[in-house]
Design a protein that fits this description.
Pfam families: Acetyltransf_1 (PF00583). This is Acetyltransferase (GNAT) domain-containing protein. Keywords: Acyltransferase, Transferase. InterPro entries: Acyl_CoA_acyltransferase, Bact_Acetyltransf, GNAT_dom. The chain contains 7 helices and 11 strands. The chain folds into 2 domains: about 1-95, no CATH class; about 110-230, Aminopeptidase (3-Layer(aba) Sandwich), CATH 3.40.630.30. β1 and β2 form a beta hairpin. It has helices spanning about 1-20, 50-55, 70-80, 115-130, 135-145, 190-205, 220-225; strands at about 20-25, 30, 40, 65, 85-95, 110-115, 150-155, 160-170, 170-180, 210-215, 225-235. It has about 240 residues and is of the alpha+beta class.
């Protein structure tokens, strides 16, 4: 079951990237057309020769290395030899939804779907402030119209203050882009939003929730009961 859930986590992540807009670069590589600027292998693929893969990784794109093991070690060594460096490290995590999670004591947030191109632009700006990079609002506007995707924002007193994306793949729902701008962090907003997202996923019939946690986000997800699966190290050209 552990291996199946690891695979489900990666299928959810790469499936979302495909919905955001992707093209097949080589037989083994896919690449985002614009944001989120990822270049990746299918999770099941393990190439014996890395040179062709590495030469096709564009500048300013992140190339993730999944899991561990001899093949991943060899790939990471080859990436470093070619001058690529780790640009992002995450921890893949999963939570069975038969696990009891608390409800917010005094809910403050109003969590809703975005419903227009204008709101997609506002959402992208808010999420960009939270993560410190620029998003493509056209990608988000396209994404919000997909049947298995919820592009959500949380408001407090009528003011949007946090973002999230839910993506359903079978019994698994992935939680992505949970963002709170720096000036609003430390107020329990992310925790309350996560509890509401978990309840939303449970109500929609999900059996598991998966995500890829940043170093900063790991403590919160551990407290909510998420179980670590494997590290993802994403490389880019220095």
């Amino acid at each position: 079951m552990d291996k199946l859930l690891e695979h489900a986590n990666l299928e959810n992540l790469t499936g979302l990237w495909q919905l955001m807009g992707a093209t097949q670069v080589t037989e083994e590589l896919q690449q985002s057309i614009s944001w989120p600027r990822r270049c990746w292998q299918h999770p099941d693929q393990q190439a014996a020769e890395w040179s062709e893969i590495i030469e096709h990784i564009p500048a300013n794109y992140l190339f993730p290395v999944w899991r561990a093991g001899e093949a991943s070690v060899a790939l990471e060594q080859a990436l470093r030899r070619q001058g690529l460096e780790v640009g992002l490290e995450q921890l893949a995590m999963v939570l069975p939804l038969d696990t009891d999670t608390p409800s917010p004591d005094h809910p403050r947030l109003d969590v809703r779907l975005i419903e227009s191109h204008e709101q997609a632009e506002q959402w992208s700006s808010l999420c960009g402030r939270a993560f410190g990079y620029t998003l493509d609002a056209e990608v988000i506007d396209q994404l919000r119209q997909q049947p298995d995707v919820d592009v959500l924002w949380a408001s407090l007193n009528g003011e949007p203050i946090a973002t999230a994306i839910l993506y359903r793949t079978g019994p698994v729902t992935g939680i992505h882009q949970v963002g709170v701008p720096p000036e609003l962090q430390g107020q329990g907003i992310a925790r309350e939003l996560m509890l509401m997202l978990l309840e939303r996923a449970r109500s929609a019939g999900a059996e598991y929730v998966c995500l890829q946690a940043s170093v900063a986000g790991e403590p919160l997800y551990h407290k909510l009961g998420f179980q670590p699966q494997f590290r993802i190290r994403s490389y880019r050209r220095g």
